[in-house]
């Protein structure tokens, strides 16, 4: 092989080596690139996974609203919710007002059950074990009831316990019927004795001119409102003549229908109407009809338990044209449910401190929604041997008088018995309220009257009271 050929061979070998080396380098680079890509993909997937986990965790964290335990919200939306929460007191029109004092119309409970030997009671107190049977810890209940009575259910008791409760109600009813004959006269045959005529005083006012645009709820509601007002006018609780200025406070006003009926009745005196109800956003309100007649309207969205009525009137009258005097404020209400009645009564009695109260007229309703802890009659029933928890059970049994009202001859004897017991419970609660009113310093007289027939309303009893200042 010549020298030239030898050089060419060496060059070829070197070229092959270079090509091989380049190929190996490329393979290594491709491998490294692939590894880098794989690592990058893994990191991206991990980052995506971490992001999902982060948001999943973030969205799963919840907190409870401090203003309403029913509101469970995401933690990240907490501040936003607080600002817009409908239960936030700072969003209410009454926030910071002097006349809002929490639970001012609720009682300070001092239940005495330790003086069994010293005080002779009508009945012995029920034992704690008996009462505890009626508590259902799984019951949600109402946000407005603040004690264990919230969880009290008759269905928790057996037949034996129910019979004991029924017998105690009968004893209490018979005792009260004999002792307070004058109060029972107004609601004769309330427990439905056969052959005895029902005592009803349904009153009417003739020639009422209905304003343009008036929306009738129904004929029966019209008759009820007019009968209630006529009773209060006849008893000189509400004034509709002369020039005496007055305040009418409608408790649990809703649409304000009852006070609107007063406004359309002929009256020559100046009147300011206070409409108090904790509900807001009510539709078809009757305020405009009262305003057309010249009556002044003040609507307050607040709970009855928190209203200092004297302070409210003081605040309203500072720059008001109507300056009311003593004996000039009336508390009214139509179908005021459960314990709201007791709150309205306490609110009325607080007016006697300033001698503003003229009278009270409340159409009673829904006794079964009451709570023994809020009753103004706690001391009275305590004296009979009835504790607060049993008083709540009496409220619950009152439902039998309404829900079983359609019992006929084919109904079970137990149902008919429950119906009578339910009506007894309602009467016991109503009469006890009248007794409480009569024991107040500046109440001259109080009573009960049936203002309409049962065909118009099963809850047809009007509680009235009139002040008397020496």
Automatic annotation (TrEMBL):
Annotated Pfam families: TRM13, zf-U11-48K
EC numbers for this chain: 2.1.1.225
Region (Disordered): 1-36
Signal peptide positions (record): none
MF-aspect GO terms: tRNA 2'-O-methyltransferase activity; zinc ion binding
Catalysed reaction equations from the record: adenosine(4) in tRNA(His) + S-adenosyl-L-methionine = 2'-O-methyladenosine(4) in tRNA(His) + S-adenosyl-L-homocysteine + H(+); cytidine(4) in tRNA(Pro) + S-adenosyl-L-methionine = 2'-O-methylcytidine(4) in tRNA(Pro) + S-adenosyl-L-homocysteine + H(+); cytidine(4) in tRNA(Gly)(GCC) + S-adenosyl-L-methionine = 2'-O-methylcytidine(4) in tRNA(Gly)(GCC) + S-adenosyl-L-homocysteine + H(+)
Superkingdom: Eukaryota
Keywords, sorted A to Z: Metal-binding, Methyltransferase, S-adenosyl-L-methionine, Transferase, tRNA processing, Zinc, Zinc-finger
Every CHHC U11-48K-type domain range: 62-89
GO process terms (BP): tRNA methylation
PANTHER family in the record: TRNA:M(4)X MODIFICATION ENZYME TRM13 HOMOLOG
Record's function text: tRNA methylase which 2'-O-methylates cytidine(4) in tRNA(Pro) and tRNA(Gly)(GCC), and adenosine(4) in tRNA(His).
Protein family (similarity comment): Belongs to the methyltransferase TRM13 family.
Protein known as: tRNA:m(4)X modification enzyme TRM13
Naturally occurring in which organism (per UniProt): Entamoeba nuttalli (strain P19) (Amoeba)
């Amino acid at each position: 092989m010549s020298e030239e050929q030898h050089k060419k061979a060496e060059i070829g070998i070197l070229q092959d080596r270079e090509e091989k080396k380049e190929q190996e380098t490329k393979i290594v680079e491709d491998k490294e690139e692939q590894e880098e890509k794989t690592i990058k993909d893994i990191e991206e997937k991990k980052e995506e996974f971490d992001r999902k986990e982060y948001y999943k965790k973030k969205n799963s964290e919840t907190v409870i609203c401090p203003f309403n335990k029913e509101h469970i919200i995401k933690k990240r939306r907490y501040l936003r919710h607080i600002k817009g929460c409908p239960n936030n007191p700072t969003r209410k029109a009454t926030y910071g007002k002097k006349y809002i004092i929490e639970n001012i119309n609720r009682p300070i409970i001092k239940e005495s059950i330790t003086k069994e030997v010293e005080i002779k009671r009508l009945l012995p107190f029920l034992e704690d074990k008996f009462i505890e049977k009626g508590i259902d810890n799984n019951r949600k209940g109402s946000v407005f009831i603040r004690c264990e009575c919230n969880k009290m259910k008759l269905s928790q008791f057996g037949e034996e316990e129910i019979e004991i409760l029924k017998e105690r109600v009968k004893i209490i009813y018979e005792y009260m019927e004999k002792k307070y004959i004058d109060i029972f006269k107004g609601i004769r045959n309330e427990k439905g004795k056969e052959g005895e005529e029902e005592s009803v005083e349904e009153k009417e006012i003739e020639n009422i001119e209905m304003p343009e645009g008036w929306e009738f709820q129904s004929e029966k509601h019209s008759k009820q409102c007019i009968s209630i007002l006529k009773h209060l006018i006849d008893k000189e609780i509400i004034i509709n003549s002369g020039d005496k200025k007055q305040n009418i406070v409608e408790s649990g006003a809703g649409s304000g229908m009852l006070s609107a009926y007063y406004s359309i009745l002929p009256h020559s005196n100046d009147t300011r109407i206070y409409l108090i109800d904790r509900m807001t956003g009510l539709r078809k309100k009757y305020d405009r009809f009262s305003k057309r007649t010249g009556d002044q309207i003040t609507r307050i969205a607040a709970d009855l338990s928190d209203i200092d009525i004297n302070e409210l009137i003081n605040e309203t009258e500072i720059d008001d044209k109507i300056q009311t005097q003593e004996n000039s404020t009336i508390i009214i209400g139509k179908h005021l449910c459960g314990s709201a009645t007791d709150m309205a009564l306490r609110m009325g009695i607080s007016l006697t401190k300033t001698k503003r109260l003229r009278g009270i007229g409340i159409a009673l309703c829904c006794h079964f929604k009451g709570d023994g802890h809020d009753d103004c009659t706690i001391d009275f029933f305590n004296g009979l041997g009835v504790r607060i928890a049993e008083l709540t059970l009496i409220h619950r049994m009152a439902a039998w008088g309404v829900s079983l009202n359609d019992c006929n001859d084919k109904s079970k004897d137990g149902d008919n018995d429950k119906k009578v017991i339910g009506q007894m419970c309602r009467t016991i609660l109503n009469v006890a309220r009248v007794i409480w009113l009569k024991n107040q310093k500046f109440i001259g007289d109080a009573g009960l009257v049936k203002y309409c027939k049962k065909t118009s309303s099963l809850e047809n009893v009007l509680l009235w009271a009139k002040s008397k200042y020496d």
